[in-house]
Amino acid sequence: MSNFQVINHPLIQHKLSILRRKDMGTKVFRELVDEIGMLMAYEVSRDLPLEDVEIETPITTTTQKQLAGKKLAIVPILRAGIGMVDGILKLIPAAKVGHIGMYRDEETLEPHEYLVKLPEDISSRQIFLVDPMLATGGSAILAVDSLKKRGATNIKFVCLVAAPEGVQALQKAHPDVNIYTASLDEKLNEHGYIVPGLGDAGDRLFGTK
Ligand code: URA
C-alpha cells in the first residue's frame, strides 16, 4: 500500500492498547486520544520543509533553520476528529483549524456532509485531515473531495485505527493523499465497526451513546 504508513512508535502502540480497552472511561479515553494525536503529529510532520534563517544569539549572528513553505491547517472530521486537535496544536500551535461535519446514516452507513468551515487560504496550506477511525473510508473520501473542491492540494490523512477496506477505498479515490495510522486492524464487521477497533470513537470521547 503506497502512500500509507503505520506509525509504530512504542509510546503510540502502548497508549493505543490502553485506549482500546472497553473499561477505559471518558476522561482517560480523551487524554489518550490527545496524547496519541500529539505523538502522531510529531511523526507526520517529519518531512515538513525547512529553510535557512539568519538570527542573532546573545553571542553572534548565525544561520539556522525554520519551517518553510506552506503553512498548516488541521481539519478534524466531526465529531470524533475534534479529539485529536488539541494534541496536534501542542506541537504546532500556530496551525489554523477548519472543521468538516459528517454524519453516518445508520442504515446505509453512507456519510453526509453538514458543515464545512475552513481557513480562507486553505488552498495554500498543508492540511492534516484528522479522524480517529478510518472505517469504510466514506467520510474521509467525502472530506477530501470537499477540501479539493476548495483548492486544497496538499493533504495528509491522520487516523489512529484503520480498516484495510477504508485504506483501499481512500487510496483508490485519492491516491495523492498520504495516510498515517497508529494501527491497521483486521476488518470491518457487518455494522461498519472496525475489528478489533475500539468501538465508537465519538461516543467514547464525548460520553454519549
Ligand atoms: N467509527 C467509529 O467510531 N468506530 C468504528 O469502529 C468505525 C467507525
TrEMBL record:
Cofactor list: Mg(2+)
Entry GO MF terms: GTP binding; magnesium ion binding; uracil phosphoribosyltransferase activity
Annotated binding of uracil, by residue: I194, G199, D200, A201
Reaction(s) the record says it catalyses: UMP + diphosphate = 5-phospho-alpha-D-ribose 1-diphosphate + uracil
Pathway this chain belongs to: Pyrimidine metabolism; UMP biosynthesis via salvage pathway; UMP from uracil: step 1/1
Binding site for 5-phospho-alpha-D-ribose 1-diphosphate: R79, R104, D131, P132, M133, L134, A135, T136, G137, G138, S139, D200
Annotated cofactor note: Binds 1 Mg(2+) ion per subunit. The magnesium is bound as Mg-PRPP.
GO BP annotations, alphabetical order: UMP salvage; uracil salvage
Residue ranges annotated for the Phosphoribosyltransferase domain, each copy included: 6-208
Regulation: Allosterically activated by GTP.
Protein name: Uracil phosphoribosyltransferase
Organism annotation: Pilibacter termitis
